[in-house]
Design brief:
- Residues 25-136 form the Dihydroprymidine dehydrogenase domain.
- The protein contains 19 helices and 15 strands.
- A 5-stranded parallel beta sheet has the order 3-2-1-4-15, sandwiched between helices.
- It is globular, with a radius of gyration of 23 Å.
- By secondary structure, it is an alpha/beta fold.
- The chain folds into 3 domains: 32-135, Orthogonal Bundle (Fumarate Reductase Iron-sulfur Protein, Chain B, domain 2), CATH 1.10.1060.10; 150-243 and 404-469, 3-Layer(bba) Sandwich (FAD/NAD(P)-binding domain), CATH 3.50.50.60; 247-398, FAD/NAD(P)-binding domain.
- It has helices at 22-25, 38-45, 55-58, 66-74, 78-88, 92-98, 110-113, 121-135, 158-170, 186-189, 198-210, 227-233, 262-273, 279-282, 300-311, 332-340, 407-410, 442-445, 450-469; strands at residues 150-154, 173-177, 214-216, 236-239, 245-246, 259-261, 292-296, 316-321, 344-347, 349-355, 362-373, 379-392, 395-398, 402-403, 437-439.
C-alpha cells in the first residue's frame, strides 16, 4: 500500500472509529466502538502535523514517540509502527482504550489548537497494536541471561506488571503476589468491559506467564506472609498495591442499606461478567436493575459506575457533581458517552443527606456554586442557599476517589514510612524507608491513571536493577 502524505489535518476531517448506537451498546458490556479499517487508520495518522516540538509526546507520561509511529502508520508500515509504540509502553492497546487522551496527547495536539480537531492518537494506537496481535507481531517475552537474583512484586496492576516484565527481561526471577484471584488488578475488576474487554488483559498476562514470571493470586501480605518474610525470600521487593480505600462521604444516612462504594459495585459487576457467582449481585445489593440510581462524584470511576448502571437496566441514572462540567476531573469524552446512553448529570450539586427507613429512599440534594480558587487553582464549591431538591433513589453509589490503606499495619512493618496521605514514602531512587523495598504506582503517587502506573513500573525496574548491581 502506497500510504499517505503527512500534514493532512486541514484537508482530511477528523474521524473517530464508528460507535455503536447508544440504545444497542447500553444493553451489553462490549466495547462501544469498532476498529479502524487500514485505510481509515492511515488517513487519520496522516493528519499529524509532525511538529518540531511534539506537544503530544511532551504530555504523554510515557513519552511515547507519537509523531514517529503515526508517520509509519500513515505510510502503511504498521509492523514498524507497532515496534516503536511498544518500545516505550508495555500495554499500548490498553492505553489506547482507556487513557483520557482528551486530557493528555490529543488535548495538546497542534491540529486541535488550530481548530481542525486533534489527531485521533488513541484510536490509532489501539488499531496498531490490535493489528500486531492479529498478525503475530507481538513477540514473546524472552528472559535475559539468569542473574541468580529474585524479585518479589506485591500487586499485579499496571505498575507491578510493567516492572515484572522489565525485570524478567533483565534475567531476574520474578514473583508477583496479588490479593485477587485473577491477575490484572483494576484492569480486570475496576474497569468495565465496555472500556476494556477482559480478554485484552488476559492475553497480556499470558505473555508474562509464558515468559517465566510466577504469579501467586489470592495472596495477602500480612495474612499469608509478613513483609519481613517476603524480604527473606527475595533479593528485592516492590510494593505496587494501588490504593483501594474509598474516601468517606460524611453526610447523614451514609449507613443506610443501598448506599454502596463504587469499587464494591464495579467489582461485583465485573465478576458477574466473568462468570463468577456473586451473591451481592444476585440478591440485588450491588445490582442496579430496575432501580433509580444516584452516583456521587465526577471522576472516571463515577463515569464507569453510571454507564454500568445503564447496562444493568437501571430505571434512571443521575450523577451528582459539586463543581460544573468544565471543572470535573473525569474525561469529557466519557461524559458524552454517558449522556448519549441516558445518564442525567446534575452539575453544581451535592448530597446533603441520604434518607429512608433502614434503606435508601431519597437523596436530599443541595445546590452548589463556585467560590474562590483553592490551593490547586480550582474554584472551590460552596453551598448555594437558593437551590436544593429531594430526589428518589433506590441505590446510591459513592465514587469520590480512593486513599491508601494502612500498609505498615497490614504488612506488619512499622518501619515502612508513609506520607500524611497514607501513601508510601520513597526517595529519589524509588526506595522506601525499608532497605531493598521499593514503591511504585498509585501507592506512591495517590490515585492516578493507568499510564502513570506503567511509567512508574518502567522507572522502578531500572532503579531496582541499579540497586542490585551495588548489593551482591
Amino acid at each position: 500500500m502506497a500510504g499517505q502524505d503527512m500534514q493532512q489535518f486541514a484537508a482530511t476531517d477528523q474521524l473517530y472509529p464508528a460507535k455503536r448506537d447508544a440504545a444497542s451498546r447500553a444493553r451489553d458490556f462490549q466495547e462501544i466502538a469498532a476498529r479502524y479499517t487500514t485505510v481509515e487508520a492511515e488517513a487519520q495518522s496522516a493528519r499529524c502535523a509532525q511538529c518540531g516540538v511534539p506537544y503530544c509526546t511532551v504530555h504523554c507520561p510515557l513519552g511515547n514517540h507519537i509523531p514517529d509511529w503515526l508517520r509509519l502508520a500513515a505510510e502503511g508500515r504498521l509492523q514498524e509502527a507497532y515496534a516503536l509504540s511498544n518500545a516505550t509502553s508495555t500495554m499500548p492497546e490498553i492505553c489506547g482504550r482507556i487513557c483520557p487522551q482528551d486530557r493528555l496527547c490529543e488535548g495538546n495536539c497542534v491540529a486541535e489548537f488550530s481548530g481542525h480537531g486533534a489527531v485521533t492518537i488513541g484510536s490509532v494506537e489501539k488499531f496498531i497494536t490490535d493489528t500486531a496481535w492479529d498478525n503475530g507481531w507481538v513477540e514473546p517475552l524472552v528472559p535475559g541471561k539468569p542473574t541468580g537474583r529474585s524479585i518479589g512484586i506485591i500487586g499485579a496492576g499496571p505498575a507491578g506488571l510493567t516492572a515484572a516484565e522489565y525485570l524478567r527481561v533483565t534475567g531476574h526471577e520474578v514473583t508477583v503476589y496479588d490479593r485477587h484471584d485473577r491477575i490484572g488488578g483494576l484492569l480486570v475488576y475496576g474497569i468495565p468491559g465496555f472500556k476494556l474487554e477482559k480478554d485484552i488483559v488476559a492475553r497480556r498476562v499470558q505473555r508474562l506467564v509464558v515468559g517465566g514470571i510466577t504469579f501467586v493470586p489470592g495472596f495477602e501480605v500480612g495474612r499469608d506472609a509478613s513483609l519481613a518474610e517476603l524480604r527473606q525470600r527475595h533479593d528485592a521487593l516492590l510494593i505496587a498495591t494501588g490504593v483501594y480505600r474509598a474516601r468517606r462521604l460524611d453526610v447523614p444516612g451514609t449507613g443506610l442499606n443501598g448506599v454502596v462504594e463504587a469499587l464494591d459495585y464495579l467489582i461485583a459487576s465485573n465478576r458477574t461478567g466473568l462468570g463468577d457467582d456473586v451473591p451481592e449481585f444476585a440478591d440485588g445489593t450491588l445490582n442496579a436493575a430496575g432501580k433509580h440510581v444516584v452516583v456521587v462524584g465526577g471522576g472516571d470511576t463515577a463515569m464507569d459506575c453510571v454507564r454500568t448502571a445503564i447496562r444493568q437496566g437501571a430505571a434512571s441514572v443521575r450523577c451528582l457533581y459539586r463543581r460544573d462540567r468544565a471543572n470535573m476531573p473525569g474525561s469529557q469524552r466519557e461524559v458524552g458517552h454517558a449522556e448519549e446512553e441516558g445518564v442525567r448529570f446534575d452539575w453544581l450539586s451535592a448530597p446533603e443527606a441520604f434518607e429512608g427507613h433502614g434503606r435508601i429512599e431519597r437523596v436530599a440534594v443541595r445546590g452548589m456554586r463556585l467560590g474562590a480558587p483553592d490551593a490547586s487553582g480550582r474554584r472551590s464549591p460552596e453551598p448555594d442557599p437558593e437551590r436544593g431538591e429531594s430526589i428518589t433513589a433506590d441505590l446510591v453509589i459513592k465514587a469520590l476517589g480512593f486513599d491508601a490503606e494502612d500498609l505498615p499495619t497490614l504488612f506488619g512493618e512499622p518501619g515502612l514510612a508513609v506520607t500524611r496521605w497514607g501513601t508510601i514514602r520513597v526517595d529519589a531512587a524509588m526506595m522506601t524507608t525499608v532497605p531493598g523495598v521499593f514503591g511504585a504506582g498509585d501507592i506512591v503517587r495517590g490515585a492516578s491513571l493507568v499510564v502513570w502506573g506503567i511509567k512508574d513500573g518502567r522507572d522502578v525496574a531500572e532503579r531496582i536493577n541499579s540497586w542490585l548491581a551495588g548489593h551482591r
